[in-house]
Amino acid sequence: MRTWQMQDAKARMSELVKSAQNQPQDITLHGKSVAVVVSRDTFDRLAKNQDSLVDFMRRSPLSGAEDIDFERDRSLVREVSF
To answer: Does the global pTM surpass 0.70?
Structure first.
C-alpha cells in the first residue's frame, strides 16, 4: 500500500485515484493514517456483505425454533460493599 501525505494527495488527486485502481492508497495527516482510498470494485465487494443483525439472525438455522432452553447460571452473587 502506498502512503500519501495529505498535501500530496490533494495536489495529485488524479494520480491517487488511478493508483487506487490497483491497490489501496493510505493518506496521512501529521504522520498519522487518516484515510484509505480504494477502488469502486473493492468498496462494492466489501460493502455488499454488510447485512443487518436482524437479517443475520433470520438466516440462522435456529430461527423460529421455540424449544431452545438456555440454562441459567444459578451460582451465588459475590458480596459488594459500597
So the answer is: no
